[in-house]
């Protein structure tokens, strides 16, 4: 059934009537929906940024629209009722530094869509966003986090463990050689006191 236009209101009608009268442009128009801004976690290593968008189980089954720009990433999820361009979820992040859009991707994770962003220059970022103010929706994904100081500490700890392991191995080897060494000392001492040549010893 076709929608009919509202009846015309005379121009001489009172202002209160004119203000409340419907217009043809508003007939059948869907109400505008403000997209919900979801929570998200971020992490980084030297070459990449990782952003996990927190979605409900129902929302994870819908296909998101993701746009990667050099200094920005846009994430949106269409409304579940087929509202067309009206977004149910929207996330707009202005990045601190540049990324390579051609090296970015969006995949699935157990907590929601995982955005993988390739840094233009490999370096540690002091923060994710350009703005200095706190983002109440932002959290840190410690399971994917890699900090230079932490990486250096891990390497130092690994070197200490390796040094300790090698020291223990050398100690066991020296301990195994001590009885033979003590025997040699005894033979040399007896030969010196008896003023005789040291007898040959087997290997």
UniProtKB/TrEMBL annotation:
Gene3D superfamilies in the cross-refs = 2.60.40.790
Protein name per the record: CS domain-containing protein
Q: Name one GO biological process term.
A: chaperone-mediated protein complex assembly
Family, as annotated = Belongs to the p23/wos2 family.
Q: Which stretches make up the CS domain? A: 35-129
| Organism lineage string | Eukaryota, Haptista, Haptophyta, Prymnesiophyceae, Prymnesiales
List the record's Gene Ontology CC terms alphabetically: cytosol; nucleus
Q: Name one GO molecular function term.
A: protein-folding chaperone binding
Q: What transmembrane ranges does the database entry give?
A: none
- Species per Swiss-Prot/TrEMBL record: Haptolina ericina
């Amino acid at each position: 059934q076709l929608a009919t236009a509202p009846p015309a209101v005379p121009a001489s009608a009172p202002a209160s009537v004119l203000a409340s009268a419907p217009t043809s442009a508003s007939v059948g128009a869907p109400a505008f929906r403000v997209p919900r801004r979801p929570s998200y976690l971020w992490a980084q290593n030297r070459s990449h940024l990782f952003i996990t968008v927190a979605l409900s189980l129902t929302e994870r089954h819908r296909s998101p629209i993701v746009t990667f720009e050099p200094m920005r990433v846009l994430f949106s999820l269409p409304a579940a009722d087929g509202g067309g361009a009206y977004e149910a979820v929207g996330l707009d992040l202005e990045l601190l530094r540049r990324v390579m859009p051609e090296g970015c991707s969006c995949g699935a994770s157990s907590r929601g869509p995982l955005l993988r962003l390739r840094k233009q220059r490999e370096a540690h970022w002091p923060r994710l966003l350009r703005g200095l103010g706190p983002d109440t929706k932002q959290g840190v994904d410690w399971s994917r986090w890699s900090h230079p100081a932490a990486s250096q500490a891990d390497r130092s700890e690994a070197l200490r463990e390796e040094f300790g392991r090698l020291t223990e191995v050398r100690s066991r080897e020296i301990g195994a050689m001590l009885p033979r060494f003590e025997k040699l000392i005894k033979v040399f001492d007896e030969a010196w006191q008896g003023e005789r040549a040291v007898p040959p010893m087997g290997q």
